[in-house]
Records
---
Amino acid sequence: MTVAERMLSIDRRIIFLVIGLCTLIPLLYPVGLAIKVSPEVKSVYDYIEALPEGSVFLLSLDFDPASKPELYPQAVALLHHAFKKNLRVIGMTLWLPGTGMANEVVSRVAREDGKVSGKDYVFLGWSPGGSSVIINMGQDLYKAFPTDYNNQPTKDLPVLRDVQSLRDVSYVVSLAAGSTGIETWYVFGKDKYKFELGGGCTGVIAPGLYPLLRSGQLNGLIGGLRGAAEYEVLIGRKDKAVAGMDAQSATHFAIILLVILCNIFYLLIRASNRQAEQNRSERA
Amino acid sequence: MTFLRRQLPLLITFVTGILFAAQYYIPHPSSELMLTSVSKWLQIIGGFALILGVTSLFHIHAVKIRRKEAGWGYSFVLYAGMLGTIVIGLWHGGKETTDGVTTAFGWIYTFMMVPLQGTMFAILAFFIASAAYRSFRARSREAAVLLIAAVIVMLGRVPLGEHLIPISGDITQWILNVLNASVRRAILIGISLGAVALSLKIIFGVERAYLGGGKE
Amino acid sequence: MKTVWTLTILLISCAFTPWNARAGETVSPPQQVHVFDTPDDGGGSLTVTWAKADEEDKSLRYQVLLHEPSAGEPKVIAEFASDTHYVRDAKAPWWTRPAPKDMHQFTIKSGKGIDLKDGTPYAVTVVAIAGDQRALAAPMQTTPGPNWFNWNQINNLAIVVIFGFVVLGSIRAAKRREIFLRRIAGLDAVDEAIGRATELGKPILYLTGAGDMSEPSTVAAAVILGRVAKRVAAYETDLMVPHRDPIVMAVCQEITKQSYLEAGKPDVFKEDSNFFITTDQFSYTAAVDGIMLRKKPAANFFMGSYFAESLLLTETGASTGAIQIAGTDSDHQLPFFVTTCDYTLIGEELYAASAYLSREPVQVGTLRGQDIGKACILVALGIGTAFATASVLFHADFSFALDLVKDWK
């Protein structure tokens, strides 16, 4: 076996080790490079920035703990921004496994920003049905969620004053890790009840949402950990997402290097095979 | 019996399919009320489906334990985990915290479910690297173009790449907003047409595979 | 009643109008004001249109006033600059525009402090304001109400109906004659994969994806399972179909049983070939990975919709040396499938696969209908692009043609 062949059939645990080190070392020894903000993330920021005080902002945390590394920082950044603008925040989730985590992030950020449950924000929790929940909220929010996550009747909450349905919400952002997610909010929500919709998603599904962004169906898109880092830069609160960008930089470079190496070895093997064939045909 | 297994489901599918296809074009409140009512039915059926899933799981593993099939010990672990979580969850009313104090249910969620799910998702990063090393080869001209685009996007999406090659960020944006968006749109159009065609076939009873069984 | 309201509003607005403005006002009241129930909606909304003024500069503003029956004074609903709120800005297709494009339009909707009740008459008027001067148009009364049909969506309905006829017509044509289908490499490999598994004496693993029976990809996966099960039955190879959804499992169980019956091998059929694991994404993935590593199937089929678990499944499968065939409409997972599988059916090739395997006229005809639909969309795209490019290059106005194509959604 030549060196190139041996390198191409290398034990994948060595690759796992390389990736592991590239993730761990920058987290322990951060560099802190500048992060350029993309127009799609700025659109979400600008829309929230332009909302008058007291506007209703609905944040749907449609993800489970598996997507926490990418979407949790987005949720934290958006909530800090919304609370800073003194918006009335409605939190909810369409994913059952994410309910505890969603409640934790909304309550924790609200506590940090000195906001009071029921007065400045409410966490509605989870209701089964996905698209059915959105339809029901579009007709009557109080029928869809008669009580909030803490069993308080939603009808009496000051934060939901003058909010009868989704038509009364100024801006909805869905942080989604898949289905049920942003597309569900558009098809069953925005298309029917005409509110403005923004999105946040994991890096892998972000490219698939660009058609919705380009057509104006979404007003903005926060994609992956990079999007979360950009949002943290915009609100001036650098946190876990910015910290994770160094690790992401190192990992991306490691993968690029591995891909270049594998192509070099592949081309070497191809060249030597071609040479061997040429020699054989000459001898024949 | 054939009427219950075949004709009746087809009739229900046809009537409800036409009804709710028409509902999209009727803005009248009675139409919206019908949609809201059916959405509530779907939520209730979704709840029953959950029970069906759990019952099925219990049954499968009960059979495994009874027959002492390979790995039946893990079935006991599943039983213990499921029953334990259900009992503790019901005890605390499904709440992770009570007056700021983490409940046992919250402990299970925070220290077992969240790390386990995170671990599974984190494995992806390693698998992507090993899959890339094994398969990202410039076997043809098209594969080479794909490879170059992938490298540019990987560079442009991280601060280090933008710092070393500033133009990579702008090229990445162009690739995502122009090339990627148009290709995704094309795939989406194809998939949507397929979905509409399949839906029409199901509504009109032309496609019956979902009922189970083959041709009549 | 109408006269009383008109006089009331005029008197009240006089109270707001400065005397010097009434004495020698230079601002004219809005002309051609027309108030009507907003069409194509579910009620609770009124629309007012009025003509553009001869001179609309930055100092001119418009106010819309609503007089509710229970309220004493008219309420100011909106105030905006005179160079905004045109008919052309409203998101309505050209065939439902209530007035010419350059007229002004404002829609009053229930919500945010306004409550328009269907069947209750309301009076609406528009005021032109320039500095201290106000000029009021004569108020008009109308009653909001719900509509039974949304004419804004008529193009959508027409397209669906026409497409439906095209599909049904294609199915009829397919019953009469042979229709050519291009070779899909992934499907030709199905036989190869099943044959390989039989030779090696190893089982075949078939996954139907993350979706439930309401998703087209899951239905397509179930249909393909039927075809695969028929061939597997003929070779008497072991088939394992782990499921994430109990209803999908029940349907696939029936489909598999029927396939074994049609293959003439009902005695070889195993009840537990289709089994339920869990609905949770990563628990299911861990279980299937375990099955792959223990049972080492020779062929893995990944059909249906997938999410983050796709790479975890396919990479584990690749590590066991199995031949892997995938088919999905989850475009975000396509890169992972293409990288790790031997053959991948992309997007609607999954839907086409059922037709390709069975050669049933219904399936083949549907495929042809879809192709015709795609051809029509391509033509529309071409026309729209040509007109849009021409309008920029030649500074011409092709908005009529562009609007027609733009509103096809």
---
Amino acid sequence: MSEAEPPTRVSIAAGPLVGPVLRRVVGMFAARADLPLDRLDDAVLVADVVAARAPAHVTANTVDVALASSTRSLDLCVGPLRSGGGRALVVDAAVPGVGNVIERLADELDVETEGEQEFLRVTLAYAGAD
Amino acid sequence: MAGENPCSQAAREGWRVDSGHRDIRLTLPARRENVAVVRHVLGALAEALDLPPAVTEDVRLAVTEACTNVVRHAYGARGGDIDVVVRPSGRALEVIVTDAGRGIGPSPDTSGPGLGLPLIAALADSLEIHRSPSAGSRLVMSFLRNRTRPATGFA
């Protein structure tokens, strides 16, 4: 990519379509960021966890995610989430025997607050050599 | 190059305004590479909704044409967004493609054969076109979900 572009936004009514749509969009943006295959797979796994857990923490009945890709880096912004929902979504990503999927896979993890709502920012990157 | 922090833009623009609908909504910069994102999402939806292959192909082609029209003609050099809303209902799948550009009509940079809209009309079971030079264009396409043959235009 030669220049920054505004984020793409996807908003999906909470329900069975969140997973299929979100994993496809995240997979495409991970590929566009030129992430290697294992990190692309990680990004899709994070998308699946967000799709499964985020509906419990959103402010309305939609799961909203903004995506921005740059060279070897993918930013996901999940929200708006209810107050406390950012941290709660991360906590909900724990899988018995595996650990916390989001914490283990993200290179950066941050909860940004804007008034009564929160946004969970997850960055997946690849800094290794080809 | 670092992309813009998507959370900053989300907060700045007050995204909660758009929340609470019952649809799938994609808002993307009007760039050629993003038409492929829309096609991928439609493919995922078609799988999840178990749409017949003939309907899936018609939806993907019609929406690709609509999005390509936005990329080529809506904004010129200044750029802008494509907004795609998908509404699965009982009998039909409604897809709405909206831009905030110059609207549908003769464009100074048009070099194509102008087949986009007739093709979309042939592929969709119904088509509404709302256009305004000041407020952009809005194409409302509806596809019957249980159709097993291609649309009339390609029968």
